[in-house]
Amino acid sequence: MNQMNHPEDAPEAFQAAWNSHDMKALAALFHGNASFVNRFGHYVRGVEEIVGLHAPIHATIYSESTLDNELIDATPIGDDAAVVHFWSRLSSGPAHPAGPHAVDTLILAVLTREAGEWRIKALENVTLTNPRTGEIVLRDDKKTA
Fold it and tell me: 16, 34, 55, 65: least CB-packed within 10 angstroms?
């Protein structure tokens, strides 16, 4: 279920788990004691808490949402650890209270390899906003980091 053979696989694996709304697939991406900070600054620790944060929204407001992720870089910090940055565009569907819309975020993930398997140890998600107005900003060119 975990499709991460290398740290660079994290954006695609996270996207696949999100787009299938499969909480078992999402859980398989994280170490048991991983931490997660969502785009609103909500911090949780532990894979059960991470799934607990996501399961209700995938059953309701994000039930028709999709992610489109794009790797920015993967920087090794040892043989068994790496920092991965990737862009993520969340497209919500009609189930969202604000209706269909898109939000771009920048994700930083720390991955470690334990027992030969790469998993996310920590992930933080930041919404792109205009610092003067707070308005959501969409990237014009998804290829620009």
Answer: 55
Q: In what order do the strands lie in the sheet with 117-127?
A: 43-45, 30-37, 117-127, 101-114, 81-92, 66-78
For residue 142, is pLDDT > 60?
Answer: no
Query: What is the domain extent for residue 44?
Result: 7-127
- Residue 29, domain member (yes or no): yes
For range 28-41, the mean pLDDT:
96
Domain annotation covers residue 75: yes
- Look at residue 141 and tell me if it is in a domain: no
pTM for the predicted model, two decimal places: 0.92
What's the pLDDT band for 143 if we cut at 50, 70, 90?
A: very low
